[in-house]
Specification:
It is built from eleven helices and twelve strands. With 295 residues, it is an alpha/beta fold. The longest helix is centred in the middle third of the chain and has 13 residues. The termini are far apart.
Length: 295
């Protein structure tokens, strides 16, 4: 793959969150290394790079090419740079003392410790309108729906079981809100919950239109973390690389204006812990209009 002079092609790998983080550091890479930035990655995640103004071009990475083998050893103009972790070595330090997942990316991209990620563009009015129509097709009211993400591909979900989600749905619905599970073809949807296969490029808009988002810690948590809606991220109390999952991946380190509400779910959690999540959403729900039928 040819890379123009002055451009560094950052190749993201693995999941949604990894692509989101590479895109979020594109501006820091541009400034620190003095290069223009293109981004490549998994074909179904090419839309992620398009969310960032600093990424001038976002392309699918050809499956037949080995990005690690083609990578330069550092970020530089005219080169391809594999923006993940060869042999996952840096990942092994995540959670050690206060070494965060973002720190691993700063090290890999040759950025200083103070380099901050930038936020992607927010969904526009056309995207949000299309998302609201998708919700209505599934019988959900925009602005009063808690979108649920119940699975993760590469982070542990131990203990955040189907019972948690069904109990949360009961409590949320008792508070006058609705729920909808984001479910791809292989998702195990908890019994009794409605689901929709939301196209990934539309996901941010659907979460915005829904009004609320609750997710086990996952790549979708990353993709939605900067949205201006009430959201809860649920962490199982488990180890992750050199420490705990929450310590190594918390959104408190993302430099967000408003950090998602983060909850650690202990083994053998009780109903009160689930109810507290539902109450968080209920407290932020829009009040019914004066004179509206609330029966």
């Amino acid at each position: 793959m040819d890379v123009p002079p002055g451009v560094c092609l950052l190749v993201a790998d693995w999941g949604i969150g990894d692509h989101y983080i590479v895109g979020s550091f594109a501006e820091a890479v541009r400034r620190h290394h003095g290069v223009r930035v293109w981004m490549a990655g998994r074909p179904h995640l090419a839309f992620v790079g398009e969310l960032y103004p600093a990424v001038e071009r976002s392309v699918p990475w050809p499956a037949e090419l080995d990005a690690q083998a083609l990578s330069a050893w550092k970020v530089e103009a005219g080169k391809i740079f594999y923006a993940h972790f060869p042999k996952l070595e840096l990942m092994r330090a995540v959670g050690f003392r206060d070494f965060h997942f973002l720190d691993a990316y700063r090290c890999r991209l040759g950025l200083p410790a103070g380099a901050n990620p930038t936020r992607p563009r927010l969904p526009n009015a056309v995207e949000v309108a299309a998302a609201a129509e998708l919700l209505r097709r599934h019988g959900r009211e925009p602005g009063r729906t808690v979108l649920l993400s119940v699975e993760a591909r590469t982070t542990p979900t131990d203990g955040v079981d189907a019972g948690f989600w069904t109990t949360l749905a009961e409590d949320v619905e008792s508070a006058g809100l609705q729920v909808l599970v984001n479910a791809g073809p292989g998702t195990a949807v908890p019994a009794g919950l409605g689901a929709a296969d939301i196209p990934l490029p539309l996901f941010r808009a659907v979460a915005t239109a829904a009004g609320f988002f609750c997710s086990v810690r996952s790549g979708l948590s990353d993709l939605a973390c900067d949205l201006r809606i009430p959201q809860v991220v649920v962490y199982p109390e488990v180890g992750y690389w050199a420490g705990g999952l929450r310590a190594g991946t918390t959104f408190e380190r993302f430099g967000l204006t408003k950090v998602p509400h983060e909850v650690t779910l202990r083994p053998g959690y009780d109903r009160a812990e689930v109810r507290a999540v539902a109450e968080y959403f209920a407290a932020r729900a829009p009040r019914p209009a004066v004179g509206a039928d609330v029966s």
